[in-house]
Amino acid sequence: MKIIPIRETGSGREGTLDNISYAEIVEKIGKPNVTDMDDPDKVKASWGFKVGKKKGFIWCYKHYGALKNCKTWSTDGDESLLKEIFGDKYLTDAEYSKKLFG
User: Fold this and answer.
1) pLDDT over 70 for what percent of the chain?
2) Distance, CA of 3 to CA of 24 (rounded, Å)
3) Which residue from 29, 35, 67, 97 lies 20 to 30 Å from 23 (Cα-Cα)?
4) Taken in order 32, 35, 40, 43, is the CA torsion positive or negative?
C-alpha cells in the first residue's frame, strides 16, 4: 500500500483512533504534514493522506500535554482505508460511543 501525503485537512470527526500512540501513527503513515493548516489552539498534530482515490485524515484535538501522551485521535475520511491501515484501533463514531457508554 502506497500512502501519499496530501495538503488537505478533515472536515469533521467521523471516527476515532483509540489507544494508539503518536509513534505508532508515524510508523504507519509518516510524520504530520498538515498541522500548519489547522487551528493551533486546538490541533497539535494533523495528517492528510490518500491511497488511490481513498483519503484519510487524522488529528490530535484539544490535547494539552506532550504528543507522546495522546492516545485518542480524531479521524475523517474513508472508513475502509482507516480500518485497513489501523485495524481495530480505528472505530467509527457509533463504535466509539458504544465502547464509552455501552
Assistant:
1) 100
2) 15
3) 97
4) negative
